[in-house]
Protein backbone atom coordinates (compact mmCIF):
# COMPACT_ATOMS: atom_id res chain seq x y z
CA UNK A 1 0.00 0.00 0.00
CA UNK A 2 1.30 3.44 -0.96
CA UNK A 3 1.86 5.80 1.99
CA UNK A 4 -0.59 8.69 1.94
CA UNK A 5 2.11 11.37 1.84
CA UNK A 6 3.53 9.77 -1.34
CA UNK A 7 0.04 9.60 -2.86
CA UNK A 8 -0.67 13.25 -2.03
CA UNK A 9 2.71 14.41 -3.34
CA UNK A 10 2.20 12.45 -6.56
CA UNK A 11 -1.30 13.83 -6.96
CA UNK A 12 -0.09 17.41 -6.60
CA UNK A 13 2.87 16.83 -8.92
CA UNK A 14 0.78 15.14 -11.62
CA UNK A 15 -2.03 17.70 -11.30
CA UNK A 16 0.29 20.68 -11.72
CA UNK A 17 2.19 19.05 -14.58
CA UNK A 18 -1.05 18.14 -16.37
CA UNK A 19 -2.41 21.68 -15.92
CA UNK A 20 0.83 23.15 -17.30
CA UNK A 21 0.78 20.88 -20.34
CA UNK A 22 -2.87 21.64 -21.11
CA UNK A 23 -2.40 25.40 -20.69
CA UNK A 24 0.78 25.32 -22.80
CA UNK A 25 -1.07 23.58 -25.64
CA UNK A 26 -3.72 26.31 -25.36
CA UNK A 27 -1.02 29.00 -25.46
CA UNK A 28 0.52 27.49 -28.57
CA UNK A 29 -2.91 27.30 -30.21
CA UNK A 30 -3.53 30.94 -29.28
CA UNK A 31 -0.20 32.06 -30.71
CA UNK A 32 -0.79 30.10 -33.92
CA UNK A 33 -4.16 31.83 -34.37
CA UNK A 34 -3.31 35.34 -33.11
CA UNK A 35 0.48 35.62 -32.97
CA UNK A 36 0.76 37.87 -36.01
CA UNK A 37 -1.86 40.40 -34.83
CA UNK A 38 -0.58 43.80 -33.69
CA UNK A 39 -0.53 44.41 -29.94
CA UNK A 40 -2.97 47.11 -28.75
CA UNK A 41 -1.44 48.48 -25.54
CA UNK A 42 -4.27 51.00 -25.06
CA UNK A 43 -6.57 48.08 -24.32
CA UNK A 44 -4.56 47.20 -21.20
CA UNK A 45 -3.74 50.64 -19.80
CA UNK A 46 -6.82 50.91 -17.59
CA UNK A 47 -8.06 48.34 -15.10
CA UNK A 48 -11.66 49.24 -15.86
CA UNK A 49 -11.54 47.36 -19.17
CA UNK A 50 -13.57 44.17 -19.07
CA UNK A 51 -14.06 41.42 -21.56
CA UNK A 52 -17.60 40.84 -22.81
CA UNK A 53 -19.45 38.12 -20.92
CA UNK A 54 -18.68 35.00 -22.91
CA UNK A 55 -19.83 31.55 -21.68
CA UNK A 56 -16.63 30.05 -23.11
CA UNK A 57 -14.72 31.93 -20.39
CA UNK A 58 -17.11 31.55 -17.48
CA UNK A 59 -19.12 28.31 -17.55
CA UNK A 60 -17.96 24.74 -17.10
CA UNK A 61 -19.91 23.68 -20.18
CA UNK A 62 -18.37 26.45 -22.25
CA UNK A 63 -14.87 25.62 -21.06
CA UNK A 64 -15.25 21.89 -21.77
CA UNK A 65 -16.90 22.61 -25.12
CA UNK A 66 -13.95 24.80 -26.05
CA UNK A 67 -11.56 22.09 -24.90
CA UNK A 68 -13.31 19.45 -27.03
CA UNK A 69 -13.44 21.87 -29.99
CA UNK A 70 -9.68 22.41 -29.61
CA UNK A 71 -9.99 26.18 -29.15
CA UNK A 72 -7.14 28.06 -27.51
CA UNK A 73 -9.37 29.63 -24.87
CA UNK A 74 -10.93 26.26 -24.02
CA UNK A 75 -7.54 24.63 -23.53
CA UNK A 76 -6.14 27.48 -21.44
CA UNK A 77 -9.26 27.60 -19.26
CA UNK A 78 -9.20 23.80 -18.84
CA UNK A 79 -5.59 24.03 -17.71
CA UNK A 80 -6.58 26.62 -15.11
CA UNK A 81 -9.50 24.42 -14.03
CA UNK A 82 -7.22 21.38 -13.58
CA UNK A 83 -4.80 23.55 -11.59
CA UNK A 84 -7.64 24.72 -9.32
CA UNK A 85 -8.99 21.20 -8.80
CA UNK A 86 -5.60 19.72 -7.87
CA UNK A 87 -5.53 20.94 -4.23
CA UNK A 88 -9.21 20.04 -3.87
CA UNK A 89 -8.32 16.47 -4.78
CA UNK A 90 -5.56 16.60 -2.16
CA UNK A 91 -8.09 17.57 0.53
CA UNK A 92 -10.42 14.78 -0.63
CA UNK A 93 -7.63 12.18 -0.48
CA UNK A 94 -6.63 13.42 2.98
CA UNK A 95 -10.24 13.19 4.16
CA UNK A 96 -10.52 9.55 3.08
CA UNK A 97 -7.17 8.74 4.67
CA UNK A 98 -8.13 10.32 8.01
CA UNK A 99 -11.46 8.48 7.95
CA UNK A 100 -9.65 5.21 7.25
CA UNK A 101 -7.30 5.86 10.17
CA UNK A 102 -10.25 6.88 12.38
CA UNK A 103 -8.64 10.24 13.09
CA UNK A 104 -11.92 12.07 13.60
CA UNK A 105 -10.48 15.51 14.39
CA UNK A 106 -8.48 15.80 11.18
CA UNK A 107 -11.27 14.15 9.19
CA UNK A 108 -13.65 16.83 10.48
CA UNK A 109 -11.19 19.58 9.61
CA UNK A 110 -10.80 18.18 6.07
CA UNK A 111 -14.57 17.87 5.72
CA UNK A 112 -15.03 21.50 6.78
CA UNK A 113 -12.33 22.69 4.36
CA UNK A 114 -13.91 20.66 1.55
CA UNK A 115 -17.38 22.02 2.38
CA UNK A 116 -16.06 25.60 2.31
CA UNK A 117 -14.35 25.03 -1.04
CA UNK A 118 -17.45 23.44 -2.57
CA UNK A 119 -19.86 26.06 -1.19
CA UNK A 120 -17.68 28.94 -2.39
CA UNK A 121 -17.35 27.34 -5.82
CA UNK A 122 -21.09 26.84 -6.12
CA UNK A 123 -21.78 30.37 -4.91
CA UNK A 124 -19.35 31.77 -7.47
CA UNK A 125 -20.88 29.65 -10.23
CA UNK A 126 -24.39 30.88 -9.45
CA UNK A 127 -23.46 34.56 -9.48
Short account of what is shown:
The chain has helices spanning 4-34, 55-58, 60-68, 72-100, 104-126. With 127 residues, it is an all-alpha fold.
Task: Report what the structure shows.
This protein is mostly helical and 127 residues long. The chain has one domain (4-33, 55-126). The protein contains five helices and no strands. It has helices at residues 4-34, 55-58, 60-68, 72-100, 104-126. The protein starts with a helix and ends with a helix.
Which outline best applies?
elongated
The number of helical segments is: 5
Total number of β-strand segments? 0
Helix share, percent: over 70%
Features:
0% strand, mainly alpha
Secondary structure layout:
Layout: H1 4-34, H2 55-58, H3 60-68, H4 72-100, H5 104-126
